[in-house]
């Protein structure tokens, strides 16, 4: 089925499906039944939408009178060619007027229909639809900006498949749309009553007699603005601006008219190829459920979907023999074919009408076939019901008890005893198989400081597999890689993937995708050890705010419900020695809309997690929406935590012992393979440069940056190489790169800041200072950041007095700023002056900030300058306990240890600092501090 009530009503503004064949555009006067619209007084206000529908017997005639002003060249371009689609197999298109209104002048642009071209262009082909629609095209000559174009036409509609009934709807244009005149008018013979209903809230149509023969409903347009839709609400709560009408008295009448179209007697000829295929199914198994699954696969896999709505094809299905021989058909054809196959197999079944997108809204509509856009099969084996959709792909025996989420449907009757032609709400349950079954393994054996290779396997099952699998064909590798990158984003949080592989198991309908990749787990150093937060890797997503009074009585839905399973393994460094797990208790939800379980276990050097999420699509009652949101949020936010042994080595020591580890070799192979696959991809070289930097392979990293810049120079790549060169003491190279980055992107704040620093280092103070931002308002975050940057550059340029004066003035305004306090403390300590003031400032900064590692480093320098080596070491060690990779603290702690006579400790600290930042001593040497 194709045509829906909503779709038809919208199309009726331009076209509808109609009475009897007419493949030529007719030209005639306005019909006598039409109520005239008021005359046009001023062209400027002549915006009109007048829609009138007459129901006479089994024929519906839609009359449209529209006016629109060409208010701009863009509007003129859109209005210069008129196109009107209609279906000639069902009715006639008649043009009554085509006029240009220019001031008081009315210009006839229609004449006797000259210049009208009729074309057939099957606009739905890309959506596998062929409906025989024609389009009338008329180029409007002489239309100018400021003109008003008036178009008046009718389209009649009669569908013999409806057995004398009519059904349709009028569009009720809502505010804030403005029209000079707007009307929706429905007219019918009083002797042949209609059921009429408005889907626009707050509007109750009132019929009134026109005369002894006719009755009408008139609605002024625009109607009231439609209420804002609540997010993730059932479709029946999304208001539609429609006035529906029908002559069907009830839903049983709709089923009665449609059911004969699906009669299966004698539709499979004995001895035919189709009969042989069905008999082969029967021979394979005596189990009726197995037979049913095989029959469904036959219809899904061997008959492609294509909608044929020409002639009576909108409701009348194609014969099974034709569907089988052509090997294509729409939902009607596939349903009738499946019914015929099931009948031959001795399985009771019936056709069922459904709305694929607004199923829960069907009971609120008037009884009409147009309430539905789909048809599928209800079968019964014993006392068990099965709901089979031949238009889907990938359904197998494992999925045979899955229920399509079509809400309320209309069974039409068939061979199932006791079935009634009445609206029926389909059962709601999660799919039997996981739509996606994922296995993810992180190899963390290289430790928390380095790249973590992972392997991800995704098994897409059943209809999910058919919908998502990447089929072999042109650009297959690129498409598969793109798909894998999206999957990696969803499951791992990054797009860095290696070579993707896939396999399709047609018998099981399982598409398997697997690939290696690189992850960057966010290990944190806190409380004397490295720790990793482990939130659930598979979550229930609930996003249905009901924070408006008008929404609080609206049920909620979990969007796109699915059944998924994730098994994750983290293979831990050093076989898990000293690793502890906290917060690993099982978690779960048990709600009508979703069940979710999570289990974690730490054993044998591996942390294992299994999560199963089964979402049914059930509605969440309004009075449960808030508590459900909290329950889901609480469950999803429960985070476990892995903690390494406090003695676990720091970054520089760990790299030294991990350089030959299998995990690191695996990671390097992924980086190398990606570059080998696309040697001209600069981003892949940049990625490997980052990897080399984590290993302190400075020369290799610089080489990759250089190759990447040669392929695709960017400010970001120049800045990365500038930073690397600065770290290793290549000042000239760092300046050159900073200048190149700035030349490419002068608006890039990082490029500006880096160039400013490097120019001053090179003695070009004025040039460097000119690059600094001028917004120094310390009352704002950006202004304070700019202010501190200027202070830093002044100190770098040995303009200490100017910097200090600015800081003194700033602290008079913001004495409670920890950043300003620390800045004055730091620069006084560097200059070895006013150390008492510096100490006071640092103490205050430490009091004001919850994470004072940097400020403790500043206070340590004050103690060092004052000769209080013990206190200095205590502060450096406290800073490193919070931030062990703070290279300034490492370097200075080494100097302090040396002054205290602990040469071994001094050597270890100095080596650590220079491993992470080879030229770290350059900064301190400027202020006379050397090992």
TrEMBL record:
Q: Which Gene3D superfamilies match?
A: 2.60.40.3140, 3.10.620.30, Tetratricopeptide repeat domain
What are the DUF3857 domain coordinates in residue numbering?
Answer: 59-210
What the entry lists under InterPro entries is as follows: DUF3857 (IPR024618), Papain-like_cys_pep_sf (IPR038765), TPR-like_helical_dom_sf (IPR011990), TPR_rpt (IPR019734), Ycf3 (IPR050498)
**TPR repeats (start-end):** 853-886
- Which superkingdom heads the taxonomic lineage of this protein's source? Bacteria
Which Pfam families does this UniProt record tie to the protein? DUF3857
Which first-to-last residue range defines the signal peptide?
1-21
Keyword annotations of the record: Repeat, Signal, TPR repeat
Q: What is this protein called?
A: DUF3857 domain-containing protein
Q: Which organism is it from?
A: Novosphingobium sediminis
């Amino acid at each position: 089925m194709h045509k829906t009530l909503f779709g038809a009503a919208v199309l009726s503004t331009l076209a509808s499906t109609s009475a009897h064949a007419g493949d030529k555009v007719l030209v005639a006067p306005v019909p006598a039944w039409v109520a005239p619209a008021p005359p046009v007084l001023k062209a400027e206000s002549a915006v009109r939408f007048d829609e009138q529908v007459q129901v006479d017997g089994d024929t519906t005639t839609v009359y449209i009178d529209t006016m629109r002003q060409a208010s701009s060249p863009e509007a003129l371009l859109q209005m210069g060619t008129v196109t009107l689609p209609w279906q000639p197999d069902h009715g006639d298109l008649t043009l009554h007027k085509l006029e240009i209104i220019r001031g008081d002048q009315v210009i006839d642009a229609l004449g006797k229909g000259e210049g009208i071209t009729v074309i057939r262009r099957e606009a739905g082909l890309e959506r596998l639809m062929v409906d025989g629609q024609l389009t009338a095209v008329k180029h409007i000559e002489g239309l100018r900006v400021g003109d008003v174009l008036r178009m008046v036409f009718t389209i009649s509609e009669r569908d013999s498949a409806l057995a004398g009934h009519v059904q349709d709807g009028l569009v009720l244009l809502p505010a804030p749309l403005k029209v000079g005149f707007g009307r929706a008018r429905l007219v019918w013979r009083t002797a042949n009553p209609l059921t009429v209903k408005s889907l626009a809230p707050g509007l109750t149509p009132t019929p009134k007699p026109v005369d002894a023969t006719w009755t009408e409903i008139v609605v002024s347009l625009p109607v009231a603005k439609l209420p804002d839709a609540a997010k993730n609400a059932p479709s029946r709560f999304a208001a539609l601006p429609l006035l529906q009408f029908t002559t069907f008295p009830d839903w049983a009448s709709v089923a009665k008219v449609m059911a004969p179209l699906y009669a299966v007697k004698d539709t499979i000829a004995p001895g035919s190829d189709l009969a042989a295929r069905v008999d082969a199914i029967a021979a394979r198994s005596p189990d009726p459920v197995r037979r049913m699954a095989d029959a469904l696969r036959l219809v899904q896999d061997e008959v492609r979907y294509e909608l044929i709505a020409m002639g009576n094809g909108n409701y009348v299905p194609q014969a099974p023999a034709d569907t089988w021989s052509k090997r294509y058909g729409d939902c009607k054809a596939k349903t009738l074919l499946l019914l015929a196959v099931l009948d031959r197999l001795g399985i009771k079944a019936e056709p069922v009408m459904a709305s694929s997108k607004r199923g829960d809204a069907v009971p609120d509509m008037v009884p009409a076939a147009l309430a539905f856009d789909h048809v599928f099969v209800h079968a019964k084996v014993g006392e068990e019901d099965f709901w089979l959709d031949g238009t889907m792909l990938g359904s197998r025996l494992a999925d045979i008890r899955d229920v399509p989420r079509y809400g309320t449907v209309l069974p039409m009757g068939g061979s199932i005893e006791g079935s009634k032609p009445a609206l029926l709400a389909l059962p709601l349950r999660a799919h039997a198989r996981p739509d996606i079954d994922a296995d993810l393994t992180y190899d963390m054996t290289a430790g928390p400081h380095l790249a973590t290779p992972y392997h991800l396997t995704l098994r897409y099952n059943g209809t999910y597999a058919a919908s998502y699998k990447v089929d072999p064909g042109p650009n297959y590798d690129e498409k598969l890689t793109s798909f894998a990158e999206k999957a990696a984003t969803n499951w791992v949080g990054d797009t860095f993937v290696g070579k993707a592989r896939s396999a399709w198991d047609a018998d099981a309908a399982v598409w398997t995708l697997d690939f290696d990749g690189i992850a960057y787990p966010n290990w944190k150093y806190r409380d004397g050890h490295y720790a990793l937060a482990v939130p659930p890797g598979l979550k229930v997503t609930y996003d249905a705010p009901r924070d408006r009074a008008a929404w609080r009585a609206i049920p909620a839905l979990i969007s796109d419900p699915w059944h998924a399973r994730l098994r994750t393994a983290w293979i831990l460094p050093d076989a898990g020695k000293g690793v502890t797990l906290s917060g690993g208790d099982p978690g779960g939800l048990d709600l009508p809309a979703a069940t979710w379980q999570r289990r974690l276990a730490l054993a044998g050097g591996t942390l294992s997690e299994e999560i199963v999420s089964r979402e049914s699509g059930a509605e969440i009652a309004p009075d449960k929406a808030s508590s459900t949101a909290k329950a889901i949020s609480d469950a999803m936010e429960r985070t476990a935590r892995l903690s390494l042994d406090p003695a676990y080595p720091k970054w520089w020591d760990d790299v030294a012992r991990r350089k030959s580890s299998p995990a690191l070799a695996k990671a390097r192979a992924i980086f190398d393979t990606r570059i080998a696959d696309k040697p001209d991809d600069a981003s892949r070289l940049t990625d490997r440069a980052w990897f080399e930097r984590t290993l302190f392979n400075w020369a290799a990293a610089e080489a990759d940056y250089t190759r990447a810049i040669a392929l695709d120079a960017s400010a970001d790549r120049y800045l990365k190489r500038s930073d690397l060169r600065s770290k290793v003491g290549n000042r000239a190279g760092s300046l050159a790169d900073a200048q190149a980055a700035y030349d490419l992107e002068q608006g890039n704040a990082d490029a500006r800041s880096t160039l400013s620093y490097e120019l001053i280092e090179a003695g070009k103070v004025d040039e460097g200072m000119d690059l600094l931002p001028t917004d120094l308002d310390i009352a704002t975050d950006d202004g304070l950041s700019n202010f501190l940057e200027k202070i830093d550059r002044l100190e770098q340029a040995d303009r200490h007095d100017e910097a200090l004066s600015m800081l003194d003035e700033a602290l008079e305004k913001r004495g409670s700023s920890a950043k300003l306090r620390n800045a004055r403390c730091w620069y006084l300590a560097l200059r070895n002056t006013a150390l008492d003031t510096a100490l006071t400032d640092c103490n205050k900064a430490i009091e004001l900030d919850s994470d004072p590692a940097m400020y403790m480093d500043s206070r340590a320098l004050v103690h060092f300058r004052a000769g209080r080596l013990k206190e200095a070491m205590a502060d450096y060690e406290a800073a490193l306990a919070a931030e062990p990779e703070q290279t300034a603290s490492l370097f200075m702690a080494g100097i302090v240890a040396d002054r205290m006579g602990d040469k071994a400790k001094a050597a270890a600290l100095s080596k650590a600092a220079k491993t992470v930042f080879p030229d770290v001593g350059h900064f301190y040497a400027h202020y006379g501090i050397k090992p």
